[in-house]
Amino acid sequence: MLSIALTRTDAPLGLNANCLENPTLSMGTNHENTKTLRTIPFAGCFGADARAAGFRGPVFVGLPDDSQSSYLRGSAGAPEVIRAAYDGRCYNSTSESGVDLAGKVADFGDISAEDCFEKTYRKYCSVSESLVAEGKVPFFAGGDHAVTVPVVDGLKTLGQPVQVVQIDAHPDLYPEFEGSRFSHACTAARILEMEHVDLVVQIGIRALNRVQQEQMKRFGSRLRVLEARELDDRASLAAYMESEVPVYVSVDMDGFDPSYAPGVSHPVPGGLSPRQVLNLFHRANWTLVGMDAVEVNPLRDVNHLTAILAARILHEGMAYSWQQSQF
Ligand SMILES: [Mn+2]
After folding, report:
1. Domain range list for the chain
2. Full-prediction pTM beyond 0.85?
3. Taking 70 as the threshold, does the pLDDT of residue 238 lie above it?
4. Residue 185 Cα, ligand 1 centroid: separation in angstroms?
5. What is the CATH number of domain 46-325?
6. pLDDT higher than 60, residue 202
7. How far away, in angstroms, is 184 Cα from ligand 1 center?
8. 254 C-alpha to center of ligand 1: Å?
């Protein structure tokens, strides 16, 4: 059982089921405008009880922390928007892969950030550890990319090596950034220092500089970088896919081209398409142990496109995880 209090924050933002259908209603831009999240007449994916005995399905968890962002804040507002985008009534509950998730996903609510990141780290790590220890598969909606570090840390409870697939424009390999080891620019460096992580595969990278190239050498064969410019065909993506190993997938939304995902703090042209990333799931042969979609910045988004894409990617991940739980 979880040993810490899990609080669902009163949602800011005045979300409702019409958000995505009526462009005059705004989602996710004003932290001051606190209204209770209304019950959404949804596609119906949420409905499972994460605390029910024997529940082994996907669990949606919001991590509303953007304290480690180096440039723009705002991604702390993303979990509520992604949640609304996920369960809004403009979609049905069946994934591309044909899995109907109606009533099969548990919404764990948002885990509030603490007043310093060390405390937030311990809290997020503990949530990840608890869910995984109970045989559940967590799907985290960030927050900035720094939240991935504690939740991957929590996977050590599996007691076996884990591989991390990171979709990103940035390698996030700085040993420290502007004096902080927990900056969102250091995410992969911190993850590669974990003993239970034996491989990080980065896909979509297009912001490598000299410092980070030096770091690549330091991590050697435990780090594979697939730059966006190398990704012209299906074959090259498939070549980087592992089979039948525990995999955690971290999707920094800036891995996508900004034309698909404009609502990020660090947009870098020349990125991945949603089709490429969705097809990764369709061709994967992983044991998916967890996933996140991070760095959605509602303050920069256009017509909620980035939140909708984050929700869609998580949806396919949850469908993948549901399918694997049936065997
Ligand atoms: Mn990034």
Report:
1. 46-325
2. yes
3. no
4. 8
5. 3.40.800.10
6. yes
7. 8
8. 5
